[in-house]
């Protein structure tokens, strides 16, 4: 192992941050944010418990079996910790309804929360310990992820095909598990290195609209626990996994690593405060938000609309910019095609998870027909700016999206939404998050309102739990 006094490294800085930060150093406001994010992650896990692909995953894990170390949410199966985390992560990500750390383009909690509760259950950790470990895990993944995005080799999303949630998220997730299991900073350095040896993830499953997409954070969760337990047994990992000649930035960015100040510089916020709770189970939240606003106000019918134009920050190629196709997985095609989400928002005035099931997508003939009339615009000359000076459109990178509806009677209606308005950390209030949790519980089909209230109370008072067993037991339905 690397000994104290050895050459400073980014890996060491982050490992010491995860292990040596005292719980009382973190402001109370950050714990309150963390509880809301945890509640949202638990909610989307409940909602995704029966989604396509989940039964097959659970059948396979049950067939493999193994030492009972941690339990699967909803189902209660006792499994080895990496397998329980894999199942919980897949459920949490199944509806693409989970938290996003927008500055780094990562779904962090979808792997962090399943790993943390598996490690906490094995260690019989307290609720306070779980909260602190999650905050610090998100901190590490967020700091690394922001630096990773800044060094984009193409300068445009979706970048070079790597999936930040999988490639980056495991570093924070691993560190969180190490803290919960009482490991040292030296162990954590090695665990991060072992995690990096497994780090992988790309967007092809998303481009091809397949069920594998919802499992990619789960692969990262599984790998993080493998890394943690192996390091605890003394297995060494590369100590320069982030800045080495074959480290994270050299291999995945073909770039120099960040300097220490960028990673460890003093700041007055925690990365979890920059996380956003999703209002809709789709990718492309901002333009869908604009469409829902219009649909709520105008009660459009398909026969009213000539065509629809959308502007998404000038992107010509992206995860959701292509035409809608039914494909082998209608649910995923609908979630990841902005034309479909916009058509749904306009004609239904909503974008509810149950609007995206395979069965419902196939029934929505009018929405499919309208999606065919959606035109992507890449210039604001084609959809006029709401402000006379286009330079005012993007203060601090907060760009506008727009939906323009042209009706057959000649009327034109436009709705503009900024990314921050639709998808910023403050876009969802506590009341919004609670309402979303209730809806997720209802969608699960097995979580009653009374059980939902109990789970909310447990999460909102998590710091009072001597162990997290109360949270785990009540999450099994």
Short description:
With 477 residues, the protein is α+β, with helices and mostly antiparallel strands. Helix content is 50%, strand content 7%.
Describe this structure in words.
- With 477 residues, the chain is α+β, with helices and mostly antiparallel strands.
- 50% of the residues lie in helices and 7% in strands.
- The protein has 22 helices and eight strands.
- It has helices at 10-20, 28-47, 54-64, 81-93, 109-123, 127-150, 164-167, 169-180, 185-198, 204-207, 216-232, 248-253, 260-264, 285-298, 330-335, 338-348, 358-363, 365-371, 419-423, 430-444, 449-460, 469-474, and strands at residues 70-71, 78-79, 100-101, 275-276, 305-312, 374-377, 400-407, 412-418.
- Helix 3 runs antiparallel to helix 4 and helix 4 packs antiparallel against helix 5.
- The longest helix is centred in the first third of the chain and has 24 residues, at 127-150.
- The protein is globular and about 70 Å long.
- Mean pLDDT is 91; it is low at 1-5, 154-158 and 388-396.
């Amino acid at each position: 192992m690397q000994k104290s006094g050895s050459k400073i490294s980014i890996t060491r800085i982050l490992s010491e941050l995860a292990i040596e930060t005292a719980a009382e150093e973190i402001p109370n406001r950050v714990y309150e944010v963390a509880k809301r994010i945890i509640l949202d992650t638990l909610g989307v896990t409940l909602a995704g418990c029966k989604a396509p692909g989940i039964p097959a995953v659970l059948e396979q894990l049950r067939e493999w079996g193994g030492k009972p170390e941690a339990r699967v949410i909803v189902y209660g199966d006792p499994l080895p910790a990496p397998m329980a985390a894999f199942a919980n992560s897949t459920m949490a990500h199944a509806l693409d309804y989970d938290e996003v750390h927008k500055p780094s383009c990562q779904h962090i909690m979808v792997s962090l929360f399943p790993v943390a509760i598996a490690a906490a259950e094995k260690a019989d950790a307290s609720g306070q310990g779980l909260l602190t470990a999650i905050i610090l895990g998100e901190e590490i993944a967020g700091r690394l992820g922001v630096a990773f995005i800044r060094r984009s080799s193409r300068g445009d999303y979706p970048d070079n095909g790597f999936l930040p949630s999988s490639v980056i998220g495991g570093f924070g997730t691993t560190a969180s598990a190490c803290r919960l299991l009482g490991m040292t900073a030296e162990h954590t350095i090695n665990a991060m290195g072992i995690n990096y040896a497994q780090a992988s993830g790309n967007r092809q499953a998303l481009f091809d609209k397949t069920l594998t997409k919802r499992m990619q954070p789960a692969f990262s969760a599984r790998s993080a626990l493998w890394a943690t337990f192996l390091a605890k047994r003394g297995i060494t990992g590369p100590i320069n996994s982030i800045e080495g000649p074959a480290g994270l930035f050299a291999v995945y960015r073909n770039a120099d690593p960040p300097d220490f100040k960028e990673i460890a510089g003093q700041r007055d916020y925690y990365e979890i405060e920059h996380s956003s709770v999703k209002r809709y189970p789709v990718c492309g939240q901002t333009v869908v938000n604009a469409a829902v606003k219009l649909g709520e106000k105008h009660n459009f019918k398909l026969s009213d609309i000539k065509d629809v134009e959308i502007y998404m920050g000038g992107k010509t190629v992206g995860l959701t910019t292509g035409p809608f196709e039914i494909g082998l997985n209608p649910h995923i095609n609908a979630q990841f095609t902005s034309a479909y989400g916009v058509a749904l928002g306009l004609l239904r005035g909503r974008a509810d998870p149950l609007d995206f099931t395979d069965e419902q997508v196939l029934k929505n003939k009018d929405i499919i027909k309208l999606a065919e009339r959606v035109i992507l615009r890449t210039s604001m000359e084609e959809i006029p700016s709401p402000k006379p000076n286009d330079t005012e459109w993007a203060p601090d990178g907060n760009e506008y999206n727009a939906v323009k509806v042209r009706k057959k009677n000649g009327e034109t209606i436009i709705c503009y939404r900024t990314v921050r308005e639709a998808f910023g950390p403050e876009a969802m209030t506590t009341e919004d998050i609670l309402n979303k949790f209730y809806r997720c519980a209802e969608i699960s089909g097995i979580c009653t309102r009374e059980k939902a209230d109990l789970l909310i109370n447990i999460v909102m008072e998590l710091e009072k739990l001597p162990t997290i067993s109360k949270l785990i037991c009540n999450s099994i339905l």
